[in-house]
Structures are given as structure tokens and as C-alpha cells.
Amino acid sequence: MQVQDAISQAQQKTGIGSKQPDLPARSLLEIWQQAISDSSACPAYTCLGETLSYGEVDQLSRRVASYFQKKLKLVPGDRIAVQLPNLMQYPIVVVAAWKLGLVIVNTNPMYTVRELVHQFNDSGVKAVVVLDQFYQTLCDALPDTAIEHVIVTRPLDLLPEPKRTLLSGAMKLMGKRPPLARDKHISFTDLISGGGNYIAHKASLDDVCALQYTGGTTGASKGVMLTQYSLLSNIAQSLHVTSILEKPLKNNIVVAPLPIYHIYAYSLCMGLIPATRGHTILIPDPRNIPLFVRSIKNFKFELFIGLNSLFVSLLENKDFKKLDFSNLKMTMSGGMALIESVADDWERTTGCIVSEGYGMTESSPVISMNPPGFERIGTAGTAIPGTEIKVIDQQGVEQPVDGVGELCVRGPQVMAGYWQREDQTAETIIDGWLHTGDIVTVDDQGYIKIVDRLKDMIIVSGFNVYPNELEQTLTAHPGVSQCAAIGVADTKAGEVVKMFVVRSDSELTATEVIDFCKQNMAGYKVPKFVEFRDELPMTNVGKVLRKDLKAQEKSPV
Fold it and tell me: Can you give the CATH number for the domain in which 125 is found?
């Protein structure tokens, strides 16, 4: 049996079909405007104990759009970086950008100076919105960029008075309110203090509306060009899959702990959930499990978005297990492999099966999902409607059902290409097929199982980590001659980084290696383990054999 035949049978059996669903709107902004027209008074987002309705978020976004256009002179196509955790300011800025036709550059707040400089210069960012606690790192990067405007927000900027003043004073006393040089930035409060008049931009389906950076096998991360069409197509596909629920998603309370700067959460929090008029509970710091649990304990949430490492942490918390899960009807998992024992524990605790999916930034992001009622734990589900897949071997020969090879995808959700990288785009999209770099097998029921990653990518708690980037960074250390990074199994994070190092300085220690990495890499990229070697396994042309290192590895977990 051919893979696509098995996929088609699975789509028919589950009721999702194979045809691409109609777009829910002609732009992301139109989805938002539809919500305003019929659900303006409904709650849109809750964060830090405060809730804003769809209408209130829209009103604030109009003021921000006006400031962007009139004061900062931003025009359609300009890139704006959003360097924030999950705060209410995030959707406000994004909706304002949509109104003006600006291109969102989602930026991890934890990035180091080196990472910020690369991303901002590569994308040509003109303005950046940043949280105060990350402002100093941004300042250190600014001299090496062409950024014209910096907007700084504090966590409490949208809280009402007198709550804001009281909490602000308390944070200052606790040393959690970093001082800011007022003449070097614009305050977010300035953006929302004015009027809301602006000239709206009418988007085209072909418009690039987001540059989503993903690491590359060449070391430097690349900007994935996501268009209105690719994102809307993927939202339509995901909506169609969830429509087979006994009670389709509508006006649901959604727990959203995953960072919106990640494409998975961005598409959900800014697309699918507004399309279903959902109420999103934003979690600024999902690593603070006690605070996370307190933030959601008073809500009878119906949809939970997570990933394996987060499920593990929550299931270890006794207060989480006491929550009311009676309304929970769907738990979505993506970003990293779901461990079967964790899925079983989640179902026992919450009474809800975890529905695992698979995707990548280059596909906006969803490629496959486990349809509700037809979940098969340990698989990535079956291809979503409008998506063709094939499995090929190293010679490009298409494999049958149960064959092993690289997954290739064709569908309307596939990216327009890599920003200013035509050669690399041509290497990734061949004859319309997106080559994922993931090794899979598809069974005769049409379910996809991820076997391995062709490109050596490491996934740490849902974050993509690319060995070449880490190796290039670490070899800048004067005491390092050569190095190689691999992922090793971890019961909580799925994988963590291990670095093998050949020293040029015999006195170099593992602590010094890790400290250097902390200064030059985001925290999740920093190796947890360092092993010194006299030499690394190489091919006859001098390429490090990471595969051999992984085979030799017996890691602690």
C-alpha cells in the first residue's frame, strides 16, 4: 500500500477528509475583526489576574497602531520584533501590527546579544518591543544593529490603578523592577495613552506577515516567511480537525502556557482561539509551576495546550492534581515527542486523552494531528486535510507503508521560503515538496511515527537546538580546539545538550565551558553535560560523526 492511500483512508475513517477547508477569512486581521463584530464584550485574554475583552484589546491595539504609524512612521512591510513572554501586551502589539501591515518577528526574550544581533540584522527590524528585564541585553546588542525604535514595557503596565502602583512599588523594593534610562527608549504606556486614529492596511493573501526564525543546519538561524495564506490555511485545517469533537470548540477557556513567540502557540493564541472566540489564559512563566497552578485554579478550562516536559512538571505538583478538570475536553501536545507514560499519567489525572500533533516552522506549523476520538499515543496522528505526504529514502525513492525515510510534505501551509536565502529555500522545497529532515514511518492505518531526525536537531522542552550553531559558538573559546553537540535523553525535557570537547588548553574545565555557553547562548541551548575527548570521530573528509557519538553515548537521566 502507498503512504498517501493509507493517509486518505485514515482521513475518511476519522471524518476529517482530505480536501483543504475553506479559509476562515482573507487575513489574520479579518479573523480578529469577526470576533470584534460578534463577541466584543467576551473575554479574550487573562493574565496576571486581569482580563480584557476582545473589544478592549482591540481598542488598545488601535492606540498602538496609531503611535506606530504617526510617531514612528512605520509602513506596511516594515519588520517589528516582539521580544516578550506571554503578557497581555503581546496580542495587543500583534493586532496593531496587523492593522498596519507590519511583519512580526517573534523573538525569544532569552536570546543573548549574539543571537539578537543576528536575528535583527538578518530581518532588518526597525522597531522592537521588549520587557524591562531583558532591556539591558537588548541595549548591549543595539550598537551592532540598525534598530530605530525601542519600546519597553513592564509586566504591570496594563493593570488598573491603584493595583499597578502598589505592585510596582513592591516590585521595586524587591529589586524586580530594573531601572531604565528614559531617554533611550519609548515607554509602552506612551503607546496606549493617545488616540486610536490610523490609516488601515488592506492585506493580500500573498503578504508575508511573520518572519519566524528557525535554526539552520549551516549554523545561523533563518527567517521562515509565513504568509497570510499559509497561516490562514493551517488555521482552517486545524479548525476542521477539531470540528469533529462532540462539542466543537466555541467560546472555550484555553490554558496557553507555551510562549507565543513559538509558531505553535502563535498560531493557536492569535489564530485558532480568536477564530473560535476563545478565552486565553496567558502564563508568563510556565516554569514557575506553583504560580502557574494558582493562575488557572479558578477556571473551568476546556482546552489545554502543552508539551511533554510541561506535563511532567505539572503532574509532579500536588495542587495541580486537585484542580477541577470536569470541563477539559481536549489536551493538545506538540513541539516535542510525547512520552507514553506521561500521556497515561495525564489521562489518569485529568480524565482527558492527550492529542499529539507534529509540525515545523516551515509549515505554519501543523502537518499532522491525532483526530479527537481517534488518538493513538506514540504517533503524530495522520495528515491534516489538504496535506499530502510522502516518505523517501536517501536516493529520493518513494517508500511504501511501513517503509522508513524522510518525510516530505506538500500543502497550502508550506512557507513562501527562507528570508533572503533562495539557495537554501531551493534545497528545502523541491518540486513543491517541503523536505522536513525528519525520518518517519507511516503504518497501514495512516498514522505517522517519528523515527529520527535527519538533520541532527535537538529538541529541548519543545525548543529546536541546532548542533552546528552551538559548535560554531563554542569554538570561539580560545581553550577549545574542536567540539560536537548531541542530544541525550532526559525524562523531563525530552532531550538536553551534551557537548564533546577537544581542548587546546589542558586546564580548561567543564564549568568554564558551560559558563562561556551561558554568556553566548539562550539558556535552553547551554549543555548540561560536557565530556572532554582527545579526538572526535570523523569522516575521511573531516566531518564530525555525531551519529557515532550518539551510538557511544550512555547518558545519565
Answer: 3.40.50.980
Domain count, the chain: 2
86 grid coordinates: 506571554
Q: Which residues contact 47 (CB under 8 A, 6 or more apart)?
A: 86, 87, 88, 281, 282, 284
C-alpha cell at 248: 466543537
What are the DSSP E strand ranges found in 345-503? 354-359, 366-369, 382-383, 388-392, 404-410, 417-418, 429-430, 433-442, 448-453, 458-460, 463-465, 480-490, 494-503
pTM higher than the cut 0.85:
yes
pLDDT tens digits along 204-258: 999 999 999 986 434 578 999 999 999 999 999 999 999 998 888 999 999 999 9
Dihedral (Cα; 520, 525, 527, 528), 10-degree rounding:
130
Element (H or E) spanning 263, and its range?
A: helix 263-267
Give the chain's length.
Answer: 557
Helices 89-100 and 28-39, interaxial angle, to 10°?
120
Residues 502, 505, 509, 510: is their CA dihedral positive or negative?
negative
Residue 326 included in any domain: no
